[in-house]
Amino acid sequence: MYLVVSPGGTLRGETTIPGDKSISHRALILGALAQGPTIIEGFLASEDCLATLNILQLLGVNITWQNTQLIVNGQGLDALREPLDVLDCGNSGTSMRLLAGLLSAQPFASTLVGDQSLSKRPMARVVSPLSQMGAKIVGHVAPLIIKPCDGLQAIRYEMPVASAQVKSCLLLAGLYANGETIITEKVASRDHTERLLRYLGADITTQKNQIRLNPQAILNGKALSIPADISSAAFFIAGASATPGAHILLKGIGINPTRMGLIHILQAMGAEITLHEKRYAGFEPIADIEVKGITLQGIEVPEKWVVSAIDEFPVLFIAAAFAQGETRFSGLAELRHKETDRIAMMAAGMEKLGVTLAILPDGIIIRGSKITGGIVDSGGDHRIAMAFAIAALQASEPITVQHAQHIATSFPSFCDIANLLGLSMIQEDNHE
Ligand code: S3P
């Protein structure tokens, strides 16, 4: 599918954004392990989260929709049953890495598979610590074949790379281990798993960057409200921040400190972003985010904000191309292991659009440029497709994004919301 975006347009108005992808996965998985119903409001029905949902159903979990609420009827930690089929994670790294931890502890065998992109992504980062715990896993990339083991041992683990997926994988395995699982991070990655575990009654504490979890017989199902996804809102926040005349208000967005890198980086570039009505939606903080567009200034992006902005760099690169002067991003080696190599893929498309840039081994330098237009490839990466659509705000010609169907991975209503706010984009099956 092609996404054809008209040049210009604006971002103005008030809207809501769909639920957080990371929290939706975790609500499903922990709901499945809890005792009694977990009633989820604001679940993100995107392809990635539906992959987790389908897998849990294959593991015997009863999950139903009741109007806008998703009800996960958990039967406790030991109620999963052997699946009759392979477990397809599609494009979703979160599904594969989190479920690898959970499945390692089960008394039955299972196989996790993924699409072409996911099958190339590194899984050794979960297989290796899980093996230290005693898990029996074959494969360092998908497919992962997981065999029943003789019980998991709790470990102390120092995370070599900041990754919430790896941390969450080990916490899920730790729920079944004999003893205390202790995980230390150099930089705090998103902590949704820890918050939700605590909310459902788990014995988990965080002190500085150390997390300690003791296994527990019961988690309690509860009503959960999932905040709007700041990583989806990011496309409009970054686009509006860097476009004079733009003015948006996005309601009920998750503002967990471990996800705030986008806001810090844009504010350092001069963005006028205000958080209104800060409040809690259950276990996560939220706010209404107002953005007024101006011309941003290029900066050297401090590496301390990389982890908390890890999914936002494609659109931050576009904001840097809209800005005055040069923006230098470094410390981004992890971007090369996402759904695509996001440094290479973004650089290729941005050069086609007339942006002056230089690629670094772990980052990119982007000069504020006049953006032309043309056909750019997203490589099937949802966030790259949406970032290039946002580039049209300041383009002089239409931008056509190839393989844009993958936007449904995380944000199926992206085009509708973008059009509502003042961009103009249509989807085409064929493009001349
Ligand atoms: C996620 C963690 C991040 C992020 C991904 C979602 C999660 O990945 O990029 O989109 O839900 O835990 P890493 O853990 O690999 O950094």
Automatic annotation (TrEMBL):
Assigned keywords, A-Z: Amino-acid biosynthesis, Aromatic amino acid biosynthesis, Cytoplasm, Transferase
Active site at 311 (proton acceptor)
EC number of the protein: 2.5.1.19
> According to its record, what are the GO cellular component terms?
cytoplasm
One GO biological-process annotation of the entry reads: aromatic amino acid family biosynthetic process
The enzyme class is transferase
Major localization listed first in the record, in broad terms: cytoplasm
Q: In which pathway does it act?
A: Metabolic intermediate biosynthesis; chorismate biosynthesis; chorismate from D-erythrose 4-phosphate and phosphoenolpyruvate: step 6/7
Listed PANTHER family: AROM/DEHYDROQUINATE SYNTHASE, PENTAFUNCTIONAL AROM POLYPEPTIDE
Its job: Catalyzes the transfer of the enolpyruvyl moiety of phosphoenolpyruvate (PEP) to the 5-hydroxyl of shikimate-3-phosphate (S3P) to produce enolpyruvyl shikimate-3-phosphate and inorganic phosphate.
Q: Which HAMAP family match?
A: EPSP_synth (MF_00210)
Name this protein carries in UniProt: 3-phosphoshikimate 1-carboxyvinyltransferase
Q: Which organism is it from?
A: Candidatus Berkiella aquae
